[in-house]
Amino acid sequence: MNTWRESILDQPDITEEPDPLGTQITTTYHATLTRTGKHWTATFDNLPGGHIIRVQGATWRETADNAMEAIFDLLKYDPGTVGFAFTPADQEAALVMENVRDARAARLHAEQAERDALRNAARALIDKGWTTRDIGSVLGLSHQRISQIVPRTTT
Q1: Which of 15, 43, 98, 150 has a 20 to 30 A CA-CA distance from 53?
Q2: Which helix (H) or strand (E) holds 36?
Q3: What number of other Cβ atoms are within 10 A of residue 67's Cβ?
């Protein structure tokens, strides 16, 4: 059974390794979304060829989807090579959304720090001869989880 303490180890690690071959090339396009009446309007400026795209939708999601489709149609891009950033024109709304993004990024990095600390602690205690049961008790994890994150080496 997976406890809430162990669930942190089920999350993927954050890897900050760059693409060694330099093959992952993406272009990010920024759009500003404005609420007008019951609709949203997305505007892309600074597109190749001096193009400007404006699309509408009834919801933020629909507008973003319409905007992405318009970029793909205009520029004939493969969806895997383009990134999008959508920002509300309202500066207060943009700030609160940025705060949420920052908080989520901080949480992800804190979770990574916890995973790293758990692995390091388990490895250090294994190296000192502790049992997986004792390590699990100290770290609040099951002995099975300790065996998963720090497998015993045979020499």
Answers
A1: 98
A2: strand 27-36
A3: 25
Strand residues in 4-140 grouped as ranges (E): 27-36, 39-44, 53-57, 82-88
User: Which one, of 100, 103, 138, lies nearest residue 122 by Cα?
Assistant: 138
Q: Helix, strand or coil for residue 128?
A: coil
User: What pLDDT digit, counting tens, does each position of 35-69 carry?
Assistant: 999 999 999 987 888 889 999 999 999 999 999 99
- 30: tokens are 């920024």
| C-beta separation of 56 from 45 below 8 A | no
What is the Cα–Cα distance from 63 to 40, expressed in whole angstroms? 6
Pairing of strands 53-57, 39-44: antiparallel
pLDDT digits (tens, 9 = 90+) for 87-142: 999 999 999 999 999 999 999 999 999 999 999 999 999 999 999 999 999 999 99
Give the side-chain half-sphere CA count within 13 A for 87: 17
Structure tokens given for 148: 């998963």
Nearest Cα neighbor of 86 from 69, 63, 52, 56 is 63
Residue 81 has pLDDT above 80, yes or no: no
